[in-house]
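Morning, I've got a small favour to ask if you have a moment. I've been staring at a protein lately and its backbone has me curious. You're getting the sequence in one-letter code plus the fold written as tokens. I've dropped the whole record in just underneath, so have a look:
=====
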Amino acid sequence: MPAAEVPSSVIHFVVGIDSVVDNICRLPLDLFTETCQHVLIYLQGLASGIDSAFISHKFLQPGVGLNHEAQQEIIRFLLLTFRSAGQSNISADELVSKLEDGSQKWSKSSLQVLHRLWSEHGAAVHAQQELQASLRIGQVVDVQWRLGMAVSSDVCRSLNSPYVTLLLKIAEPSGLMCQKSFEMSIPQFQNFHKQFKEMAALMETV
């Protein structure tokens, strides 16, 4: 009787997980621990995002030898793993068991790091996941603006009309950073500024 055919998507998924785990187990334990801590700090709501540039710089140390894509795969894997564990509110033993079921390439020392860190931070991550479930919105972490003179614009039709460009840096609930920009005429910006002043005054009374 011929063996059942395994869908190519499943094969790709399994190979992909094994590849990420293999790269994790190549990391020095102190670097792996620090990377996990960065992810856990974010998932506990203690940071507005994950500083991928800082982590990438750490990965440049001798003996690591992982390219940028491999680094990002590790961060995404840890984000998914810890976030899922927090939503399910599982114990450190259950987390390690699920990881072992997912791949046979885990080293004992890497699993010990994950067990220890989840024992210390799992409850806080779960609490933050519960909070985010009711407040599924991004967080503005930076606002920049500049004044310009329009040659043509959907908003400022007249030539040489002044306008303001706002650039917002937003930390999304997924942990990724995104940027949003938009233009306003001077009257629109003045009204925008007025509303923000009213909001600030109201918040001072709370």
